[in-house]
């Protein structure tokens, strides 16, 4: 293995490159990145960078001397448009192509959009630093009527930041409760109640019928005025460039337990990868920071093992994510399923500071905390050990005492 190509120059891709170098790989590493920037951190885009507290130089993932030390060959502003696994070649949008011995697919995900949002005079999505700066320019002056479509984590983080900048904020959600996908209906509503305290209105069961230059028209005929519109309805994995490659694509690049895509020396990592997590015995694709970082490192290690003819290892973690809204830090460890039993085990929902545990089939599946890191983090081990739900209730009570 003399040349590794990494497509997607962000968190997962960078972690893969760093792991190759720290594992002793001295060959060439080419980073093909669709953005013109070197890798930067996305979580602040909806928080401190959007609020104006931080400038883009604060969110670089590595300092320039650290980056130089990795000796990477950069192709920024270059999109991969095709992959031929037989000749082991990546095709780039500028007409060039790059041959590889090892390949990491780390192209992440991109925001879904609504066709009618183009009618609005100030419609935004939020994925890149450029998106964040464009939205920030609209929000920092305050006094705007901001409508966010989608009460997922990104939508609610934008709502919190926009509100803190003194804008009037309404969130429209088509589902019966906010954060349903991430936390389930009951806890989603409990977490989103924080927004009511700050004067943000969240309207659920709100189906968008149309969008005009300055409003959103709902299916029930009501109109919500919007000076600024933010569409936060989730993301789709960035897989178009793999059309015709023969890789299996199904809501992401389908990988084996070791993140290999079924061809020698080709692995996927981060938001783009769907793999079978043996710990939970289910296929999953995770759209969170810790997963992208850990998977990137894992494929770096597995690429080296493949080169050396050694066995690769399955990636079977306990997923983790956090969100920040106002002065609350929301953390979730584990993997919620739609029909989980949920118990609040510490604090209280009314105080907006609590922990809840999720379980199904008698087994612990996850732990949610709002300003409760003391209760959440110890559960990583318990989830790894497949603790029973009853034991988890008892442990949580001890931790909270
Ligand atoms: C606003 C925002 C806030 C977030 N906040 C949190 C948080 O609080 N907590 C948390 O856990 N997670 C958070 N996340 C999620 C986290 O940032 C992502 O899970 C993480 O960035 C995924 O990393 P990745 O490397 O897999 O993909 P990405 O970061 O999406 O990077 C993929 C890169 O590949 C490039 N690319 C795509 N297609 C091509 C192509 N064909 N050729 C070349 N390059 C290509 C893209 O331009 C991009 O630069 C947030 C995300 C956003 C957008």
Description:
- It is a single chain.
- The protein has 401 residues and is of the alpha/beta class.
- The protein folds into 3 domains: 3-110 and 235-307, FAD/NAD(P)-binding domain (3-Layer(bba) Sandwich), CATH 3.50.50.60; 113-231, FAD/NAD(P)-binding domain, CATH 3.50.50; 327-400, 2-Layer Sandwich (Enolase-like, domain 1), CATH 3.30.390.
- Helix content is 26%, strand content 29%.
- The chain has 11 helices and 26 strands.
- It has helices at residues 11-22, 48-51, 64-69, 129-139, 153-164, 180-183, 185-197, 289-307, 373-376, 379-384, 389-400; strands spanning 3-7, 28-33, 73-76, 80-84, 89-92, 97-99, 102-105, 109-111, 123-124, 145-149, 168-172, 201-203, 208-211, 215-218, 223-225, 228-231, 235-237, 253-254, 266-268, 273-277, 282-284, 320-325, 328-334, 341-348, 353-360, 363-370.
- It has a 5-stranded parallel beta sheet, covered by helices on one side.
- Helix 1 (11-22) links the parallel strand 1 (3-7) and strand 2 (28-33).
- The chain is globular, with a radius of gyration of 22 Å.
- Flavin-adenine dinucleotide (FAD) binds next to helix 1, strand 2, helix 8 and strand 22.
């Amino acid at each position: 293995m003399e040349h590794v190509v990494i497509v997607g120059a962000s968190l997962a891709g960078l972690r893969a490159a760093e792991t190759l170098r720290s594992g002793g790989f001295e060959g060439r590493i080419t980073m093909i990145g669709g953005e013109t920037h070197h890798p930067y951190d996305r979580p602040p885009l909806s928080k401190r960078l959007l609020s104006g507290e931080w400038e883009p130089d604060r969110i670089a993932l590595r300092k320039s001397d650290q980056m130089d030390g990795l000796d990477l060959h950069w192709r920024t502003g270059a999109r991969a448009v095709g992959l031929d696994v037989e000749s082991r070649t990546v095709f780039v949008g500028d007409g060039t192509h790059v041959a590889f011995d090892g390949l990491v697919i780390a192209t992440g995900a991109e925001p879904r959009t609504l066709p009618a949002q183009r009618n609005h005079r100030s419609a935004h999505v939020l994925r890149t630093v450029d998106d964040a700066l464009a939205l920030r320019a609209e929000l920092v002056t305050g006094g705007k009527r901001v409508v966010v479509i989608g009460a997922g984590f990104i939508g609610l983080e934008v709502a919190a930041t926009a509100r803190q900048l003194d804008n009037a904020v309404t969130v429209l959600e088509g589902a019966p409760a906010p954060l349903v996908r991430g936390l389930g209906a009951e806890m989603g509503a409990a977490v989103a109640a924080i927004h009511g305290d700050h004067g943000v209105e969240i309207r659920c069961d709100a189906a968008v019928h149309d969008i005009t230059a300055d409003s959103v028209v709902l299916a029930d005929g009501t109109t919500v005025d919007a000076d600024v519109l933010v569409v936060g309805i989730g993301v789709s994995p960035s897989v178009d460039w793999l059309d015709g490659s023969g890789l299996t694509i199904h809501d992401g690049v389908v990988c084996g337990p070791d993140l290999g895509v079924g061809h020698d020396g080709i692995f996927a990592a981060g938001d783009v990868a769907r793999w079978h997590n043996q710990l939970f015995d289910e296929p999953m694709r995770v759209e969170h920071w810790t997963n992208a970082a850990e998977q990137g490192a894992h494929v770096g290690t597995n690429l080296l093992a493949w080169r050396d003819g050694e066995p690769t290892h399955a990636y079977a973690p306990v997923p983790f994510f956090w969100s920040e809204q106002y002065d609350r830090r929301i953390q979730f460890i584990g993997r919620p399923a739609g029909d989980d039993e949920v118990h609040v085990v510490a604090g209280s929902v009314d105080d907006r500071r609590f922990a809840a545990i999720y379980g199904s089939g008698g087994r612990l599946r996850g732990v949610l905390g709002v300003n409760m890191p003391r209760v959440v983090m110890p559960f990583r081990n318990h989830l790894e050990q497949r603790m029973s739900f009853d034991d988890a209730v008892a442990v949580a009570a001890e931790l909270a005492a």
